[in-house]
Amino acid sequence: MQVDEGIAILKENGHKYTDKRADILTYFIHAKGYRSAKALLAYMETSYTGISLDTIYRNLRLFEQLELLESREKNGEKLFKIACKSGTHHHHFICESCGLTKPLQKCPLPVYTEELADYHVNTHAFELYGLCPTCHNR
Amino acid sequence: MQVDEGIAILKENGHKYTDKRADILTYFIHAKGYRSAKALLAYMETSYTGISLDTIYRNLRLFEQLELLESREKNGEKLFKIACKSGTHHHHFICESCGLTKPLQKCPLPVYTEELADYHVNTHAFELYGLCPTCHNR
DNA sequence: TTTACAAATCGAAATGATTACGATAGAATA
DNA sequence: TATTCTATCGTAATCATTTCGATTTGTAAA
Fold this sequence. Notes:
Number of strands of chain A: 6
Subcellular location (chains A, B): Cytoplasm
Strand content of chain A: 25-35%
Cofactor (chains A, B): Mn(2+); Fe(2+); Zn(2+)
Oligomer: homodimer
Number of helices of chain A: 5
Strand order of the largest sheet of chain A: 1-3-2
Binding site for Fe cation (chains A, B): 89, 124
Family (chains A, B): Belongs to the Fur family.
CATH architecture of the largest domain in chain A: Orthogonal Bundle
Shape of chain A: globular
Largest interface: A-B, 32 and 33 residues
CATH topology of the largest domain in chain A: Arc Repressor Mutant, subunit A
Organism (chains A, B): Terribacillus saccharophilus
């Protein structure tokens, strides 16, 4: 995902370019994992003194709606990361220290074909949490 | 899980019996799946007019701490269900129609030993959603 | 049964994350 | 540049949850 692509998707959907939006995208593209609204705010304040909370949260919602960002919840707050462009179904390992997300190649669903033969499976949620090699060796 | 067992665990840990606590346990034992603090409050208010939010949230926290309840987050709120008494680690299939939860025998973790050889896995979340045989055939 | 005291509850205020709003600034288009 | 929405600002409101001083209650010992 490039900033340009994100901006293009914004415009296709009738939204305007702003430097703040480009910077928000840049922030999440460079962050390899989940980040909070608070963390984004801290980052944005370095470039835009007095930026409004409205701007932070409104754009986070917009980007998630446009599927430029994905989110999950933890300890009562929402965490965001750049969306995975690969259209194929996959799961993630999430580093609890730095937030890095590693896409996993396998899906555990086949494990249960036998056990749930009589059941109709619609969806599933699967995430692994721990420490990435970098954080583990520190 | 019986109400008596829950009360016993409360006492073993130096907490007192109250009718409200017994009723909270009853509520979650009879509930088929996850319930919100708000839903519990609505239920409790039918028996205890003017019950304090403090009582609701304090006991939810206590019960989760004592592992009588388990929780997950959705749409900015915490949802609770009665904990599974079997001490062994397992996952669930959850029927989206009737709320039935079927404990699963297998855990998908071994699938990833190779892929995450350099990673330190602490925890994982895995749930399957769909229709149980009864609901599917209706 | 009564007493004593820590724990539980109440009523209400505080907190933290998020959302909403009226006024102003700014991007896009002709 | 003039026009027209959209975006942002500054601040207030909202929602779930936590906290707190005062009061009540469970429970164990007298």
